UniProtKB/TrEMBL annotation:
Subunit structure: Monomer.
Name listed for the protein in its UniProt record: Adenylate kinase
GO biological process, one term: AMP salvage
Pathway this chain belongs to: Purine metabolism; AMP biosynthesis via salvage pathway; AMP from ADP: step 1/1
Domain Adenylate kinase active site lid: 127-162
Gene: adk
Binding-site residues for Zn(2+), renumbered to this chain: C130, C133, C150, C153
InterPro entries: Adenyl_kin_sub, Adenylat/UMP-CMP_kin, Adenylat_kinase_CS, Adenylate_kinase_lid-dom, P-loop_NTPase
Family according to the record: Belongs to the adenylate kinase family.
Coiled coil feature spans: none
Entry's localization field: Cytoplasm
């Protein structure tokens, strides 16, 4: 099954992505992970991506689309995948359709994790991430076992610069402006599902699972 997971920054879609991928046994393809991996290359493209992400800006479409297309060609995507953080606008959605159409494939389901703005600000203010492996925590809702340390690799956790309130509000404004055309795009295809996202993690996942099981 080929799935897109949409949601506001800090809306919890990363957590739901992992649960869905474990349930369906498909790879979790996150643009954030792809960008972090690419930055390690240290080349000109890596520096360009890093400059955008450190300022809380979106990486340009031409870079993002190219990296996603390369990732979808890998063997582990043959039986499906989940896209997290892509597409971010209508141009990317149309480009994804073209990429998949070349292989006579299509997106099966699009889930939107819908969370109120006030809840987003609360979540991101307390979010801490591992700069080494990308694992994410929350000081109140999902704290690490050892305060300030990543459970996976033991690295010191950081409060990202783009999780500051002023930058969060800018990101939310950009998100609202660019996401509506995507929602319309997939709603017209009849594959968009809006999921109430301000409840517990398991409650949210159970709503998604019911839809997936109905497809089964």
């Amino acid at each position: 099954m080929k799935i897109i997971l949409l949601g506001t920054p800090g809306g919890g879609k990363g957590t739901q992505a992992k649960l869905i991928c474990d349930y369906l046994k498909i790879p979790h393809i996150s643009t954030g992970d792809i960008f972090r991996s690419k930055v390690k290359d240290g080349d000109a493209l890596a520096l360009e991506i890093e400059d955008y992400t450190q300022k809380g800006k979106l990486v340009p479409d031409y870079i993002t689309i190219s990296l996603i297309e390369d990732r979808l060609k890998k063997e582990d995507c043959a039986n499906g995948f989940l896209l997290d953080g892509f597409p971010r606008n209508e141009n990317q959605a149309e480009a994804l359709d073209l990429i998949l159409n070349k292989q006579n494939e299509h997106i099966d389901r699009v889930f939107l994790i819908d969370v109120p703005e006030a809840a987003i600000l609360d979540r991101l203010a307390g979010r801490r991430v591992c700069p080494k492996c990308g694992e994410s925590y929350h000081i109140k809702y999902n704290p690490p076992k050892i305060e300030g340390k990543c459970d996976i690799c033991g690295t010191d956790l950081v409060h990202r610069s783009d999780d500051q309130e002023e930058i969060i509000l800018d990101r939310l404004a950009i998100y609202k402006e660019t996401t509506k055309p995507i929602l319309d795009f997939y709603n017209e295809k009849g594959i968009l599902h809006k999921i109430k996202g301000d409840d517990g993690i398991n409650d949210i996942f159970n709503r998604i699972r019911k839809i997936l099981d109905a497809d089964g």
